[in-house]
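Shipment paperwork, digital attachment
Item: protein structure file
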Amino acid sequence: MLSSGSPLNGNYAGIRVTPRDAVVCGRISDLLRRAELALTGDLTSTRHYVMSALALLDGTVDAPSPTRDEADARSHAAGGLARWQRSRIEGFVAANLHQQIAIKDLAALVRLSPSYLCKVFKVTFGMSPHSYIMMKRVSRAKSAMVSTRAALSDIALSCGFSDQAHLCRVFRQAVGEAPHRWRQANQTDLGQ
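Attachment content:
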């Protein structure tokens, strides 16, 4: 451990660090990163990680190094989706924007219940599944509006909106202006 009597005032130049100190510092750093991730959803895990880091600093505990399985468990403890789940959802949504996407289908895709998916989805993506899907649809509609001369009604249907009015309503909420005005301001000359 750090030699007693060494001031911990932010100037570490005079402190002798042994290999064991480096391992303990690495473990403390890992615990604090876990605590930071857990802050968004799981205060019990946050408290555990901070208390473990403090115990390491006090020299009262020798915490084990995390394994890969523990890293996935940490993601769940922090309240978020595992990396493979996030990737699978992103790919599925991108491939199926043109049609209705049900929460139960997303949940089955990542082997979770629909209610639990909604909870962890918000932690992972910062928004509900519905908001995420609508954001992706608006983004695809923007791309289509600037790269084609297709009618807004056709763009709406190809992006999974129920009709042009639905596109206009969601687009105005997300972007702050009507799709027609946004298109006029952002479309490049596509030629005749």
